[in-house]
Amino acid sequence: MGLQNRTPISIDQILRALATLGQEHVVDPELRPDGLIQQDVPELLGALLGLVETESTTLVDPQAEPPAALHGLQQGWRHTSADRAVHRAVLVDRLHRTAFDVPLLLADVEPDGDDEDVPEPPGIAGASASAMAAAALVEAQEHLVTGRRDHASRALDSAEGYLAQALLTLHLLRLQLRAIGLKE
Asked: Using one digit for the tens of pLDDT, what is the confidence trace for 39-51?
């Protein structure tokens, strides 16, 4: 879903927010002699998002029932827009980012390095596939509700493929666990 932001956040606003949160962003004058440009916005927003997500993670105790502070975070997030289409688009985007973040941030494989032949650990690959399955299921439900049956069917096919990958990685992890148990 392509959302349109009528009041996009400017580069200066992002830089001020980062500075306020203690993460000054210094522009390399050789790389950007005229300052930051629009293509820099995703990285800047990623830095801001990382700070906010890290801070919110320190507030939420996942062991609590329900997790402490989670309700407040959800309420604050929901107040940014009353449009369910926006909520859905943001959540699907978040799931896609998570699917790409899991192997990038948790696997011991360099994404731009010579480790292309090194497989991701099964748990990492399974977690990534599970996030993609969740995104595809959300999209399938939306397509079904809006009467786009062909799109819903394709999204369900994608979800099924990702879930099969996740189940395979679960099986591989169980085999690894058994192999460790036999060695002990």
From this structure: 999 999 999 999 9
> Using CA atoms, how far apart are residues 26 and 72, in angstroms rounded to an integer?
33
CB 54 within 8 A of CB 73: no
Which value, to the nearest 10 degrees, does the dihedral of the CA atoms of residues 23, 27, 31, 33 take?
Answer: 160
Read off the pTM. Answer: 0.81
Dihedral angle computed from the Cα positions of residues 11, 13, 17 and 19, in that order, rounded to the nearest 10 degrees: 70
- If residue 132 lies in a helix (H) or strand (E), which one and from where to where? helix 122-145
| 32-43 as b/e: b if 16+ CB within 10 A | eeeebeeebeee
Is 172's pLDDT higher than 90?
yes
Query: Token pair of 107, please?
Result: 């696997």
